[in-house]
Amino acid sequence: MGKIFDIGFMIQSVPEILTALPLTLLLALISAVIGLVIALFVALIRYFNIRGLSQICQVYVSYIRGTPMLVQIMLVYFGIPLFLRALNVYLGTNFNINGVPRLVFAIIALGFNAGAYMSETIRSSLLAVDVGQLEAAYSVNMTVGQTLMRIVIPQAFSIAIPPLANTLVSLIKETSLVFTISIIDLMARAKIVGARGYRFFEIYVVVSIIYWVICTFISRLLAAAEKGSRKHERTINP
């Protein structure tokens, strides 16, 4: 009878599972950058309440927040090839749809998901800046762009760091779903190793510890960044 819980198998599996770590981090990082760009545009559109676009952004945020991440990945994975096929037919082009890497679909899905959540964070941070500061900036003939870049965004960014850090940590964990479209990330590598030895519980313990260590490290890193961004703030004594 074999061992009920094989610690030796767990330890031996760690190096092989970690070979997928760079891909997981790359996925999360690129998706976070894309999400941040989307979030900034969406937040500014809603902050200035641009008619038409603001309503579209509201629907986008509501849809992403109201549907599971796995469903969004599937929609992107199966939907974009259909869209490209339709474009080929309409434009008479011959774009190789099968040549699009699966990684691209994963990054698009994760980026749009992160963008929706980050946009709410940035929008609330923009709204948290005192209106009096905007009025003071306009009173000295600063333009809207100058007011945003010099006064509003630096303060909003400082406020937004903790929730943005939470979104990044969530994004790292959500990359574990991309194995459903045959991307060999940490989770997929763990499943492959687990299947080889029929030791799934041990492998899931290992991969959970890896995710935990990574997320804890990044949380502390971003907490230090937040502390650094606030070092120039003055405290007001009562």
Automatic annotation (TrEMBL):
<dbReference type="InterPro" id="IPR000515">
    <property type="entry name" value="MetI-like"/>
</dbReference>
<feature type="transmembrane region" description="Helical">
    <location>
        <begin position="99"/>
        <end position="118"/>
    </location>
</feature>
<dbReference type="InterPro" id="IPR010065">
    <property type="entry name" value="AA_ABC_transptr_permease_3TM"/>
</dbReference>
<keyword id="KW-0472">Membrane</keyword>
<dbReference type="InterPro" id="IPR035906">
    <property type="entry name" value="MetI-like_sf"/>
</dbReference>
<comment type="similarity">
    <text>Belongs to the binding-protein-dependent transport system permease family. HisMQ subfamily.</text>
</comment>
<keyword id="KW-0813">Transport</keyword>
<dbReference type="GO" id="GO:0006865">
    <property type="term" value="P:amino acid transport"/>
</dbReference>
<dbReference type="InterPro" id="IPR043429">
    <property type="entry name" value="ArtM/GltK/GlnP/TcyL/YhdX-like"/>
</dbReference>
<dbReference type="Pfam" id="PF00528">
    <property type="entry name" value="BPD_transp_1"/>
</dbReference>
<dbReference type="GO" id="GO:0043190">
    <property type="term" value="C:ATP-binding cassette (ABC) transporter complex"/>
</dbReference>
<keyword id="KW-0812">Transmembrane</keyword>
<keyword id="KW-1133">Transmembrane helix</keyword>
<keyword id="KW-1003">Cell membrane</keyword>
<keyword id="KW-0029">Amino-acid transport</keyword>
<feature type="transmembrane region" description="Helical">
    <location>
        <begin position="203"/>
        <end position="223"/>
    </location>
</feature>
<feature type="transmembrane region" description="Helical">
    <location>
        <begin position="69"/>
        <end position="87"/>
    </location>
</feature>
<protein>
    <submittedName>
        <fullName>L-cystine transport system permease protein TcyB</fullName>
    </submittedName>
</protein>
<feature type="transmembrane region" description="Helical">
    <location>
        <begin position="20"/>
        <end position="48"/>
    </location>
</feature>
<dbReference type="GO" id="GO:0022857">
    <property type="term" value="F:transmembrane transporter activity"/>
</dbReference>
<feature type="domain" description="ABC transmembrane type-1">
    <location>
        <begin position="21"/>
        <end position="222"/>
    </location>
</feature>
